[in-house]
UniProtKB/TrEMBL annotation:
CDD domains: PTS_IIA_fru
Gene that this polypeptide is encoded by: ptsN
InterPro entries noted in UniProt: PTrfase/Anion_transptr (IPR016152), PTS_EIIA_type-2_dom (IPR002178), PTS_Nitro_regul (IPR006320), PTS_SugarTrans_NitroReg (IPR051541)
NCBIfam families xrefs: nitro_reg_IIA
A GO molecular-function descriptor: protein kinase activator activity
Residues spanning the membrane: none
Domain PTS EIIA type-2: 6-149
Coiled coil (residue ranges): none
Protein name: PTS IIA-like nitrogen-regulatory protein PtsN
Biological process, per Gene Ontology: phosphoenolpyruvate-dependent sugar phosphotransferase system
Length: 151
């Protein structure tokens, strides 16, 4: 079992999202997480956008892991997004991003936040996993892939 499987709710697997920019993506993610997690959408946007200004969270190969901390958040919250059309994310390989894992941690988060980021980087470094995530027909299949992945 991986750390992510305990956090990712099926309702937070978003497929076919259409956003022309990082800003728009963060707005849409904020709206989605507000409805499923009760986190104010503007706080999600501000947290992700502020972190992104420090440097791109894109890893390459069409993958990004936007993340941030939010005051008042009780537990780590996350969402997986598969874009309909890839967007520019200032990736190190200059490829647009179509797969994103958004991670929000409480302001006083422990090392768990860093462990999750490391696990995600490991998951997304596997070409076969990236291919399977892109080919999954629906949110349930995608959730199962993530849940069953082992580090």
């Amino acid at each position: 079992m991986n750390l992510v499987s305990q956090l990712l709710k099926p309702a937070n697997v978003l497929l076919g999202l259409e956003a022309g920019s990082k800003k728009r993506l963060f707005e849409l993610a904020g709206q989605a997480l507000q409805s499923t997690e009760g986190v104010p959408a503007n706080e999600v946007f501000e947290s992700l956008f502020s972190r992104e200004k420090l440097g791109s969270t894109a890893l390459g190969h069409g993958i990004a892991i936007p993340h941030g901390r939010i005051k008042g958040l009780k537990e780590t919250a996350c969402a997986f997004v598969r874009m309909k059309t890839p967007i520019d994310f200032d990736a190190p390989d200059n490829l647009p991003v179509d797969l994103l894992f958004i991670l929000l941690a409480p302001a006083a988060a422990s090392d768990l936040h860093l462990q999750i980021l490391a696990e995600l980087a490991q998951m997304f470094s596997e070409k076969e996993m990236r291919d399977r995530l892109r080919a999954a027909p629906d949110a349930e299949s995608l959730s199962t892939l993530i849940r069953e992945w082992t580090p």
